[in-house]
Amino acid sequence: MKQKLPLKILTGFLFLILLAIGFVLAVRKPLWNDEIFTQTRNIDQASYAAILTGKIVEGNNCPIFYLIQKGVCDLVQYRFPKVWDSREWEFSDLRSQLILRIMPNIFTAGTLAIIFYFFARYYSFGAGVYGLLVALSSLMVWGYWVEARPYPLWFFLTIVQSMLFILLMRKEFQQERLWAWLTLVNILLSLTVIFGVVQTLLISFLLYVWLEKRPGKYLWFAAVPTVISLFYYFQTLKLKFFVPDHPMNLIYANLPLDRALIFLFFGIVLGVYSFKKRQKTQPVDFGESRPYFVFSLMMIATALGFLLIFKLIQPLSQEGVFQLPHRYFFYLTPVGILSVTVFSIYLLRIFKGQLWMTINCVIFLGGMLVIRILKTFYELSQQGPY
User: Fold this and answer.
1) Residue 323 forms beta bridges with which residues?
2) How far is CA 143 from the centre of its chain?
3) CA-to-CA distance for 295 and 316, rounded, in angstroms?
4) What's the rounded mean pLDDT across residues 79-105?
5) Bridge partners of 335?
6) Where are the alpha helices (DSSP H) in 53-195?
7) CA proximity to 261, closest of 350, 151, 372
8) What's the whole-model pTM score?
């Protein structure tokens, strides 16, 4: 307990620093059209009952974010100072920017602090710092850090869901307690974004394969979140989209090529050592990295599948149709952050004692991180996060 206390204190200070950074972003970035629409049409003008039953004008009508925002606004007696205008792209108002972005900032800053704490506690302090740097080098994190829409909450819940899954697969902790927490996160995720149920079902499938075969365990864990998601899906506003000319850019925005290279490299190493283990020549324990690799691979495959579906069903005419945005694949950002961190840890473990391979690994992983940091902050300086 004494060993954990300094780490918790450090994590608390880190959270406050990240929170301060978020408030600077909130002040510097005007509210943009989608944030204004969400606030005026689906929070100010909607009752709690309408939000809870999904009767709002949004492509995603799951209620938790909107209920939280409405609660904050009612608490401080705030209403947006003007009506939404589709032609007004940005609006600067300091009070609005601070109030509407309080909770998104807390979610993002909390998530980044949790990433550091998780890897520092369960792996090493260096892993915690590395995981934090990987997260901070993600363009989408900066782009949606204080977005007054559901994305920061989605980011938070996806990270926590993945972490609980990783801990379950390590089989070192109280399984029932972890299962209960993960069940709660799955339900909250189904009340945050409709796509959350896909994440839950993929994790449920992998847990069934690797860990828990009793069907009854999945009633609240998977069945209830599925029913909740279907309830909101059938009531949601059905928007039409066209896919841009370079559709893979929607994926790369959330999972950049440099991270995909780390993913690919780890996959090759995993395949080679799995073959050697089968041949009983060089057994290596990949631990929780193996199921998380499969989960990440399935998440990427799902994203590609959805991209293909959007392409096949897009209208022939683009008039009055929205362009499919990269934020619809936002879940790849937290999955990519954890994947890169976990896979990097295991690559260094696998090659421990092999000096030449360790040096090459450090150069490769460090180089990819430096490149990603430079590219992210260059893009932010050139065009801003939106």
Assistant:
1) 242
2) 13
3) 35
4) 92
5) none
6) 64-75, 94-100, 102-122, 125-136, 139-143, 151-170, 175-190
7) 372
8) 0.93
Alpha-carbon distances of 110 from 17, 20, 105, 130, rounded to whole Å: 11, 12, 8, 17
How high does pLDDT run on average in the chain? Answer: 91
Count other C-beta atoms under 10 Å from residue 298's C-beta: 18
Look up residue 339 and give its amino acid: S
Do residues 34 and 24 lie in contact, with contact meaning Cβ atoms separated by under 8 Å?
Answer: no
| Cβ within 8 Å of residue 127, ≥6 positions away | 119, 120, 341, 345
Tokens of 279: 């041949």
**pLDDT one-digit tens code per residue, 2-18:** 567 899 999 999 999 99
Residue 232 pLDDT level (bands cut at 50, 70, 90): very high
8 Å CB contact between 35 and 100: yes
> Which tens digits make up the pLDDT trace of 303-356?
999 999 988 888 776 666 788 889 999 999 999 999 999 999 999 998 888 898
Residue 15, pLDDT score: 98
The DSSP string of 271-305 is: HHHHHHHHTTSS----TTHHHHHHHHHHHHHHHHH
pLDDT at 39: 95
Decide: 192 and 62 in contact? Cβ < 8 Å.
yes
Q: Rounded CA gap, 140 and 327, in Å?
A: 8
Distance CA 134, CA 369 (A): 7
- Rounded to whole angstroms, how far apart are CA atoms 361 and 270? 15
Q: Which two tokens stand for residue 354?
A: 């092999």
Spell out the alpha helix ranges (H) of 29-85: 33-39, 48-52, 64-75
Task: Determine contact, residues 98/20, Cβ cutoff 8 Å.
Answer: no
For residue 287 the two structure tokens come to 């631990």
Under DSSP, the state recorded for 133 is H
8 Å CB contact between 43 and 74: no
Q: What is the pLDDT of residues 118-173, one digit of tens each?
A: 999 999 999 999 999 999 999 999 999 999 999 999 999 999 999 999 999 998 77
The token pair that represents 39 in the structure block: 């606030």
Query: pLDDT of 40-69, one tens digit each?
Result: 999 999 999 999 999 998 888 999 999 999
Encoded amino acid at 73, one letter: C
Q: What is the largest CA-CA distance in the chain?
A: 70
